[in-house]
Amino acid sequence: MARRIILANPRGFCAGVDRAIQTVDTILRAAHGPRADGLPPVYVRRQIVHNRHVVEQLASRGAVFVEELDEVPHEAAAAGIPVVFSAHGVSPAVQREADRRGLAVVDATCPLVGKVHREVLRFVREGYEIVYIGHNGHDEAVGVVGESPEHVHLIEHASDVDGLDFAPDTKLVLLTQTTLSVDETADVIAALQRRFPWIELPPSSDICYATSNRQEAVKLVARQADCMVVVGSANSSNSVRLMEVANEALGARGEAHRVDDADEMDPSWFDGVESVGVSSGASVPDELVAGVVARLRGLGFTEVDAVETIQENMHFVLPKELRARR
């Protein structure tokens, strides 16, 4: 019997990631090469998406990535060089700094992340305290909490609930980071409901459709595989979680491994393995998955099958700043 590769579908780019990358790509293509004044065609605040290869590829074409806006020189601001905000969104403080400096901002925040920002503002206006489940320090969480730091209370784990203290007459609502799954937040939500039984859940799920879809596909593939390879960067929340979901589904039968690309694969992982599941995070280009498949073929996995749980047809239009130029 042939050793086989089982590809999870859907995998790879979600609509928000595709929109963010296309935003930078559109600006680069419109620039038509280096400027006479030596300035770059575009600055990007933080990683446009959490994938090292995507960032390196865009940087090789002239995009300059900065951690903070003060790294954008005054002459670039005066020349109107676009500054792109990443798919993960920014806090109002970052937006105010951009406005103060007169930067030509192109906001590539994922619309699903933007929805959570708007929910924070609405609930604060209505007098709520907000409990936000998210990863401390993640760009998305930093931006959302920054909308109202005095009213948004970030927690990561069920044990963090003990550190919260709200009177019974406090209007209380729960929001979550979009890249967290229902499974991942279940124990935290249960702990919150035990401690604060009156807490309100968000009016509609804030979990990104792509997060849920990719995790369901990984679960299905892992049940048919002896081990799994998940392609994605270490700072990608959804990629790391995919690996964890795969490990949970594999159980004692095997192990899941996260890699940035095929070069990080260890052939010893596949000793005695007949079938390998392969998936990738929502910010991973498919050519990196193709590289993993090619490496596995070289290791003797000659048959390739795919398992599809749902077809995705979500699409987001480019930011309004680019649409206005057309």
Protein traits:
single chain; about 325 residues; alpha/beta; Cobalt-precorrin-4 Transmethylase, domain 1; Rossmann fold; 3 domains; five-stranded parallel beta sheet; four-stranded parallel beta sheet; about 20% strand; flat
Main pleated-sheet profile: 5 strands, parallel
**Tally of helical segments:** 11
CATH architecture of the largest domain: 3-Layer(aba) Sandwich
Classify the helix fraction into a percent range.
Answer: 25-40%
CATH homologous superfamily designation of the largest domain = 4-hydroxy-3-methylbut-2-enyl diphosphate reductase, catalytic domain
Strand order of the largest sheet: 10-9-11-1-12
Provide the gyration radius in Å: 21 Å
Which spans have pLDDT < 50 for at least 5 consecutive residues? none
Per DSSP, what share of the residues sits in E-state strands of 2 or more residues? 15-25%
Distance between the termini: 56 Å
The geometry reads as flat
Q: Let me know the number of strands.
A: 12
Mean pLDDT: 95
Count of the separate structural domains: 3
Please state the structural category: alpha/beta
Please write the string of helix (H) and strand (E) elements.
Answer: EHEHEHEHEHEHEEHHEHEEHEH
GO biological process, one term: dimethylallyl diphosphate biosynthetic process
Binding site for (2E)-4-hydroxy-3-methylbut-2-enyl diphosphate: 50, 88, 138, 178, 236-238, 283
Keywords: 4Fe-4S, Iron, Iron-sulfur, Isoprene biosynthesis, Metal-binding, Oxidoreductase
Protein name: 4-hydroxy-3-methylbut-2-enyl diphosphate reductase
